[in-house]
Amino acid sequence: ARSNVSQTGIDVRIGLIRERLRRYPADDRQLGPTQFANALRAIETYGWDRYRLDSQTLWSELMSVAPGSLRTEEESARTPVNFSVSMMYLSGLLGLVCLIVNFSTAGSSIAPLVVGVISLLLVPSWYRLAVLNTRYLGSVVQAIVNVGRVELAKKMGLTIPRKLQDERAMWERIFW
After folding, report:
1. Coil/strand/helix, residue 158
2. Long-range contacts made by residues 44-50, C-beta under 8 angstroms, separation at least 24?
3. What are the start-end ranges of the H helices in the chain?
4. What are the tens digits of pLDDT across the range 12-67?
């Protein structure tokens, strides 16, 4: 019984490590300077890394053939990321403005100082939330690429080859 418990713990840790790795691009040359940049690049490069389908160039086409439920899901998944990034910038700007007002005005109250400090302390939390929210967006974009590529090929008068290597060659030719 003890070995089952320890194996479960190892499986959980492996799952968590895999989840963290999915926030990074598969290609080392695509690594960015921040966690958020890496998470976005992992999303943006999934189609290329998997199928040699440039989902960035063909995004409009992919969205036009994706099922309506996936298009709605993509919009829902993008909203928390956009909200977190907006709040990060808003908190930073509000914090700086409050501190500037507090230090440039003689005899000002402590309120701008408190609001400014709290706002600046919230910036890392908003950033972390933006990074975490990319997980769901990545899953949805992955589904759009996986499902949409088949319909996109049909709309372009192509058929998906049986072998992944042949499909990759097809999408790469379309890209170039």
Report:
1. coil
2. 46/138, 46/141, 46/142, 46/145, 47/145, 47/149, 49/25, 50/145
3. 2-21, 35-51, 59-65, 68-104, 111-155, 164-175
4. 777 666 776 677 676 777 778 899 999 999 999 999 999 999 999 999 999 999 99
- Nearest CA to 122 out of 104, 95, 141, 156 is that of 95
Under 8 Å CB-to-CB from 63, ≥6 apart: which residues?
A: 71, 74, 144, 148
**pTM exceeds 0.90:** no
Q: How far apart are CA 50 and CA 28, in angstroms?
A: 15
Amino acid at 50: R
Query: SS3 for 69?
Result: helix
